[in-house]
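Appendix B: complex inputs.
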Amino acid sequence: MSEIIPIGPYHPLQEEPEFFKLHVEGERVTKLDIEIGYNHRGIEKLAEAKSWDQVVFLVERICGICSTSHPAASVNAMEDLAGIEAPERAQYIRTIICELERIHSHLLWLGLAGHFMGYNTVWMWAWKYREIVCDIFEKITGNRQSYAMFKVGGVRRDIDDDDIPWIRKSLDQLKPALDMFKGAVMDDPVIHARTKGVGVLTKEKAIEYCVVGPTARPSGLAIDVRKDDPYFAYDWVDWDIVVLEEGDVFAKAAVRILEMYESVKIIEQCLTKMKSGIVDLKVKELPPGEGIGRAEAPRGEVYHYCRSDGSNFPARYKVRAPSYTNIFSNEVAVIGETVADAALILAAVDPCYCCTERVVVINHDTGSEDVLFENDLVALSHKKTEKIRKEMGV
Amino acid sequence: MTWEEIKKDIKKTFGKKIQKWYEHNKRRIYIDIDTDNLKEFSEYLFKNLNSRFIIASGVDTPGGVIEILYHFDFFQLPQVISLRIKVDKSNPEVESLAEIIKGTEWIEREIAELLGVKFKGHPNMQHLILPNDWPEGNYPLRRDQ
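Resulting structure:
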């Protein structure tokens, strides 16, 4: 028997080991090579050796930041396969978990983006207010991350009705913080100068590269699985999808900030509309067939395809994470920009964490290769912000 | 376009080229087609019907056949169409869609290295997730390996 190397989705994790090669002429980027696969854990292959119940746990490990979006797509795929629908209360609980996660993930990104631009106050404050969300998670699920809430046919834990007033109070604390971020980021002249017109992904390119989520919506593509292919409780509550036209880094930040307001709106409605009832159908087995599950993660559409031969294990389990298409689009977004902006543009698709751990700058004139590490790039970016600040006299 | 119009359009345009039309439910449609018609189908879906390419899934089946499903959706519609082609495992060869749909470039590289399917006309057939010194002829997602 030949060796079997487990294969799976390469969802980027924290200090993710993707490798971007920037080709530059002087200050300008002329070409970008992307190499991935350094973080390959073979989740797809591994899933073939797990029972259906375990698969939901397994896919929760794909991403540490949006840990619930993969289980969401996973239960959608399995319920599509079996033709079952989870009880109403479970759907509301699932929606609450997914939206809380969106808020915490966007706040995390906002903090990082602030850090990359030299706005360390934005970073500290964004992560401070993220704590509120993590506390709510702890109350509902017992965990701040990796909540293990989802299962086929329902959720594992109910929300205690006595906790709801406390959850509402916590959300109320979050609202002024969101207002503050909206003001701090969207009205700041220096941030405008740093991000407007930078790293533009046009609508045509967005379609061509098949990007999703908050990388597509700022480019004028109105796609959101929650609206297009409603799952859980998303078509029982009232909310809007945020679409902008510019496609630059500023629009990408604005979409995320405005989306957090919608998430709060969704959670509050779910808390009101949720009626008591069962939360789990206790599904025992899945029939043979195929299933497709989609979910809108904070970074875009998560897509799962599964095939069952009627046994306890999936015959094939395919996962497509949103960064898979979004990272590829950097190939066009970064062209013609300066090296100081590159870190920001690469971070703007929110590849879970900025992938600037190792960037090689190839100087076309001398042919030399200098390896810039994350700190060098961040320092370059900070320098540019300082320069703009001085010019503006702020 | 509404879903009914799209459905009618596809059936009218391709007629007998559709080997099997299977609706798992209202939102999930599987269309079996011949490998030779894949490019024509995908180009029509992507360019004429303004669909969005989601991803392709390669599946090694016990019958000596590798199935590839190309998943498309239509922006504001909930329907997902999966084009299914079947290629012979002894000589799996498919035409690359990369020049029509840029977004297929990575997944074709992935299917090529994991399942050993050749994509004719692909601009860059290097390894995507496996290391460059990966032994040739070793395809991790095949059932017999």
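The beta strands of chain A are 19-25, 28-35, 150-151, 154-155, 289-297, 300-308, 314-320, 358-363, 369-373.
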